[in-house]
Known about the structure:
Three copies of one chain form a homotrimer.
Chain A: E1 11-16, H1 21-36, E2 40-45, H2 83-97, H3 103-112, E3 116-120, H4 121-126, E4 138-142, H5 144-150, E5 155-158
Parallel strand pairs in A: 1-2, 1-5, 2-3, 3-4
Amino acid sequence: MDKFADDTDRKLCIIVSKGTLDGAYPSLIMANAALAEGIETHLFFTFWGLDVITEKKMGHLPVTPVGNPSMGMPQAVAPMPGMATVATKMMKKKIHDLDVPDIEEFVEMLSDMGAHLWACRMTVDMLDLDEGDFHESVEAVISAGDFIEMSEGAQLLFT
Amino acid sequence: MDKFADDTDRKLCIIVSKGTLDGAYPSLIMANAALAEGIETHLFFTFWGLDVITEKKMGHLPVTPVGNPSMGMPQAVAPMPGMATVATKMMKKKIHDLDVPDIEEFVEMLSDMGAHLWACRMTVDMLDLDEGDFHESVEAVISAGDFIEMSEGAQLLFT
Amino acid sequence: MDKFADDTDRKLCIIVSKGTLDGAYPSLIMANAALAEGIETHLFFTFWGLDVITEKKMGHLPVTPVGNPSMGMPQAVAPMPGMATVATKMMKKKIHDLDVPDIEEFVEMLSDMGAHLWACRMTVDMLDLDEGDFHESVEAVISAGDFIEMSEGAQLLFT
């Protein structure tokens, strides 16, 4: 599967801690760019980031204008029913129009390119999940200690 | 105190900028994992992250479902009085059930393991605080420049 | 322009993904500290972070207490009309009182100190912007791949 990876001695380890569209995409896009450069790339999904690789959730990651004034919606309106759905649809459409794959397809693509995907043991225990709940491209559930060990010599991103 | 630190030549510098439970724990957990691997570990608390080491606040870090659709509560309900309290209690219980220490105990444990804890000078001035307001394990209030200097050769995380 | 940069062999690459005052300032402050130490410094503005270098927006970056319980305002009150304006004014005043420049002045100062500022191609396309929409200190619109290439050997921060 490592079509692209391991062409350089660079290594990139990305900790993904958010489960929203605008939280997840930057990680995936950076991972994709790194893999295309032949960089060994690891993604460690923790806290809300676990949603990005959870079968039942990865197809439905939301985005909300609540608490994000950058989206340009008044905060008095943003929490109203339906607003998050509208914002999510709009962002999905914009991303789709740029030919950027949706989350599930993106995760599969990264895995095909040689990315290593890991789920955080502590979060898995906290949410009462198990290995079967994750996308098949996830290699294993590992501890923060395992992740720290494998990140030796890597550039790190916490997203 | 350096029971674990300095067994390798790795160095990890974590900038902690958030003062919520879900913002703070990932930093503390990564620091703990790094220290257990013998990695020299520094935490620089800045902006809202300063709450994590402020005596009066560290015992009461909140978490809110507002603006975080990953928590599964409708955004029209999330801002209602009491909801943040419920969410905070639930997360604290889940963390406690995993035998993960509460924030104050965790900060003390990291310090005992050899972590170096620093408060950001600019934020301290912005909030009209002084050194006496922080947990005793904080070594000093330092500038961003001091932090950049000490991070030479380190892996960085901004959380 | 490189009055300060390139005095060491260190390199810092900061990905700026947020467009709020409390999201943007930590990046700018770290960049400033790094430049003062003679470190080659790159800032890559992506997603909401693009607002920080967009001519029409950089003077009006907001901050909101919504979803940020660290600001101490009840979440039932925070979304009310006017609250974000009050919070933004208060933070701007506090930052001004510390003699920290406002966003536009800060971006210019960083550029004068030798910082390299880049806009993310994908976000630019997503928001239907073009090069003319950005502050003149922005060197170019580049892809995530270009950014990954230029970050070889750098310390990374994702803010």
